[in-house]
Amino acid sequence: MKKLRRRFQALPRRFWVAAAAVFFIVSIAVSIYVGRGNAPAPMQVPISSLLNLADQHQLLRVDINNNTLYAVGTDGKQYVSLKEDQQTVTEQLRRDGVVVTVSDGSRAALGPSTIAAILPIAIILGVIWLMMRHGGPNNQAMSFGRSGARRYDGDSRPVTFDDVAGVEEAKQELAEIVQFLKYPEKFRAMGARVPKGVLLVGPPGTGKTLISRAVAGEAAVPFFSISGSEFVEMFVGVGASRVRDLFRQAKRSAPCIVFIDEIDAVGRHRGNGFSGHDEREQTLNQLLVEMDGFDINTNIIVIAATNRPDVLDQALLRPGRFDRRVTLDPPDIGGRRAILEVHAQTKPLEPEVDLAAIAQQTAGFSGADLANVLNEAAILAARSGKEAIGRHELEEGIMRVVAGPERRSRVVTDYEKSIISYHEVGHALVMKALKHAHPVTKVSVIARGQALGLTVQAPKHDSYLTSKAQLMARMAALLGGRAAEELIFGDVTTGARQDLDAVTDLARRMVLEFAMSDLGVVAAPSSERGGELSPEMAAKVDHETIRLIDEAFNTARAILRERRDKLVEIAEHLLKVETIDGAELDALLGPDWTYYA
Ligand code: ADP
Ligand code: MG
Ligand code: ZN
């Protein structure tokens, strides 16, 4: 506070005039707020009821403060509820479309109405503060924390390599960085050039942030984290100064890790003429300057994460900058199992739960998805008052991650429901009739997320190559819904919208990217590679795309026409039971079921 006052004295007179005016306005605003009288006291409800309200889309927003949840309903009603210590509900609430904010303990005593009253003051103080930051060269006194980076170290249990699973190669490569942070002399004595920057490359949710924190945890050094997108949102000139501050702070705490998430937000190739991205460029330049300025004794490792290494400015990748690249791939079946095991450690599972089976059903899931599955399952088990998480909760957890929670409250007429049922069974039967289609694991007419009904397939194995026959089978399966509607109702609905998008996309890629059409073995120039299709070529591509889709649609139609009786039988059954799993479907198909030639 003292420092703050000293700064104020140095400010020009007009600043004081402005500040006085601002203060005046705020006082008026506050008196209006207070004068309005307090809102009725929030109603105390159990957490289970609160989550149910969220499921029924009756909650607008929730503020989580430690274990207390303040919620506001769509009707303006306020609720207060307590949750368990370790229970996280954010993800679920978000999925139910609730705005979730988290506040820290110090604000615990303040009710929502107090916050509303203080907010405008806070905003105005914030603006004053921002103005001061541009106040000249003598504002170093306030530099602490200016970079906006978050620092993690100290009391909470550090993340270690044991918390990261399924990415063994990345762990091995980063173990070397840990060694360097721990025993820098050893490396220097050998005359080894020590790494400065590591680029972590991988799709979202593969554990880039997690493994970076694990490096800091293993080496027992502080961890500074900032996101590239935060730089870009800032006012002109602030990004570069933040970078400077960040590294000043980091140098004081060296050895340490500086983690820059989403580096592509600042690190895209620089300038092609009219940028309008000056801010980004300055930030990037400052980052390069800082990294080049590390001398041989600077024990700072900069780890940057991205899922778009292709767009990065080459300058970032030069020796002495981010010259190490570590890739995190989506986990294979063994990796998924290992990740599930890590996250299951803190959760009670029923003895018959088989994580290997869950790993098998979750091909294509990232580490974050898998963590979510277990979390959703834990919430479901807690909600139904169970002692441990069972297979049922885990399967529902998978479905929630794939498609969102069930929305039983959505009202559909019986007629619509029967269309949905035939549509879904149409998908399922086409999948079951084609050798190259993946096994069906679930068919359902219960709405989830955006979907009115759902047919779920899970591949038997992870695969890295897909054949043309498999893609054709996928297209036919996608069109099975539409084909069933046409066959049974003699009319079609908008329900196939997403299927049609997916089919069109797939067919186009088959023509353009995989050269799987009659156009021959040529991958057309994509815009990324700087090429443009000639008009004649574009017309041919369209023609081939349409032809592939037609072929797939005809396959779907033929399959269902031949199996119309089964379609009717199973769709009518599904209307009654609402959900069928893979084994039940096989039983309904019976022993006479044959593949489509
Ligand atoms: P990224 O930064 O690549 O988007 P994160 O590190 O933020 O991914 O991962 C989010 C969460 O997902 C982690 O906090 C962790 O709970 C889980 N997770 C992701 N990958 C793994 C993994 N390989 N092992 C264990 N947990 C993982
Ligand atoms: Mg991350
Ligand atoms: Zn469909």
Written account of the structure:
With 597 residues, the protein is α/β, with parallel strands linked by helices. It has 5 domains: 11-36 and 113-135; 41-104, Signal recognition particle alu RNA binding heterodimer, srp9/1; 154-326, 3-Layer(aba) Sandwich (Rossmann fold); 333-403, Orthogonal Bundle (Helicase, Ruva Protein, domain 3); 414-589, Up-down Bundle (Methane Monooxygenase Hydroxylase, Chain G, domain 1), CATH 1.20.58.760. Helices cover 50% and strands 11% of the residues. The chain contains 22 helices and 14 strands. The protein has helices at 2-9, 13-35, 47-55, 90-95, 112-133, 168-182, 184-189, 208-219, 228-232, 238-253, 264-267, 278-293, 333-344, 355-361, 367-383, 391-403, 414-433, 468-489, 497-512, 535-562, 564-577, 582-589; strands at residues 43-44, 59-65, 68-73, 78-82, 99-103, 150-152, 197-201, 223-227, 256-261, 300-306, 324-327, 440-444, 454-457, 579-581. Mean pLDDT is 82; it is low at 1-13, 35-39, 105-110 and 133-145. Bound molecules: adenosine-5'-diphosphate, magnesium ion and zinc ion (ZN). Residues 164-167, 202, 204-210, 305, 339, 342, 367-368, 371 line the site of adenosine-5'-diphosphate.
